[in-house]
Amino acid sequence: xxxxxxxxxxxxxxxxxxxxxxxxxxxxxxxxxxxxxxxxxxxxxxxxxxxxxxxxxxxxxxxxxxxxxxxxxxxxxxxxxxxxxxxxxxxxxxxxxxxxxxxxxxxxxxxxxxxxxxxxxxxxxxxxxxxxxxxxxxxxxxxxxxxxxxxxxxxxxxxxxxxxxxxxxxxxx
Length: 173
Description:
Elements: E1 3-5, E2 11-16, E3 21-26, E4 31-37, E5 42-43, E6 49-51, E7 56-64, H1 73-76, E8 77-85, E9 90-91, E10 97-98, H2 99-102, E11 109-115, E12 118-123, E13 128-133, E14 138-144, E15 149-154, E16 161-165, E17 170-172
Antiparallel strand pairs: 1-2, 2-3, 3-4, 5-7, 6-7, 7-8, 8-9, 8-10, 11-12, 12-13, 13-14, 15-16, 16-17
């Protein structure tokens, strides 16, 4: 569903939307050199945000609790940002960020963008944006946007963020 290319363009990372897996593709040999799982209950993995300076990647996703008989949204779907070590090509499970813990209840994190040590995550089900300080792993802000935000881009100067609200057909700035 989502793709990111390493800075030297020798590795392509591809998210598999429903399985919570990331395919690591060697762009020279054109083969899958590894598949990284972010958990058997992970899904809705769309974005793959690379921090080349720290050799880390951030993957917004939703963990399913399908064993739960109480089918309330806040007990069956948990929003996370998973973190991957790009040198070792492993999921750093103990470092993942639980969005519903650091922010107001949010749902279905789909897209993200990175500026220095700040991660901006769109939450499609709750129509908002979570702004995270990656150093402290805490939310800096919670911003309401339009309906079902599914795209995000940072301006060249880094002083504006554009969020595509796909259901109501608007852009939040």
